[in-house]
């Protein structure tokens, strides 16, 4: 008698099942069945986690330009930045950024380690699965002007993600233009109710932002509250930090 389709499927399944060996997941130790010759023995959940991890690393690779790729908290050189005033505060704030819902405004002259801290915090956010965008003033602003993009579209692009990283605010073009664009993005993010998770590095001190609307938006974005046991917000903190010291990049070259 000829085999029915169901019988064929059952027979093949059984043949496959018979070849499976009992084993343990290499990561969590859960019992799994695996095929002989498999490179790695992983349970479904550890396999998923591994894929997710790979996907996030790939996204980081896409997001970060060449000179930024090896920047992380692990590669942050504390000895080299030890003479930079406020560097410990800045490092702590950057390390907490992934957990905190408060923005950060880090400013000072070039070469104080600002970008390294920004990229390290960005890395943490991506690896924890948050939606992240990076806006580099020095390159993207030029692109936006050359491409003739509409301001609204530009603001839109950076107003939907949970975490926005703005590097080198005010580094190119006129200060007024830079401030205008920052205001547009902040305003749009408020409209979109995406929260205050913006990490900005700048060479414009907060007192040099002479537009009060922008200044108050930036300070508002960087203001957080410590919540106490009784649920009343008490201690206020403002993550606006000035880094002061010698240019560590120039020192490195001497
Ligand atoms: Zn596992």
Descriptive notes:
With 254 residues, the chain is α/β, with parallel strands linked by helices. Helix content is 43%, strand content 18%. The protein is built from nine helices and nine strands. It has helices at residues 5-19, 44-63, 87-96, 114-127, 137-146, 151-157, 175-192, 212-221, 248-253; strands at 20-24, 31-35, 104-107, 132-136, 163-169, 198-202, 223-227, 233-238, 240-242. Strands 4-5-6-3-9 form a five-stranded parallel beta sheet, with helices on both faces. Strands 1-2 form a two-stranded antiparallel sheet. A two-stranded antiparallel sheet has the order 7-8. α7 (175-192) links the parallel β5 and β6 (198-202). α3 runs parallel beside α4 (114-127), α6 crosses α7 and α7 packs across α8 (212-221). The longest helix has 20 residues, at 44-63. The mean pLDDT is 88. The protein binds zinc ion. Zinc ion binds at residues 25, 27-28, 30, 42-43, 45-46.
What's this, in brief?
The chain has helices at residues 5-19, 44-63, 87-96, 114-127, 137-146, 151-157, 175-192, 212-221, 248-253, and strands at 20-24, 31-35, 104-107, 132-136, 163-169, 198-202, 223-227, 233-238, 240-242. With 254 residues, it is α/β, with parallel strands linked by helices. The strands form 3 sheets. The chain has a 5-stranded parallel β-sheet, sandwiched between helices. Strands 1-2 form a two-stranded antiparallel ribbon.
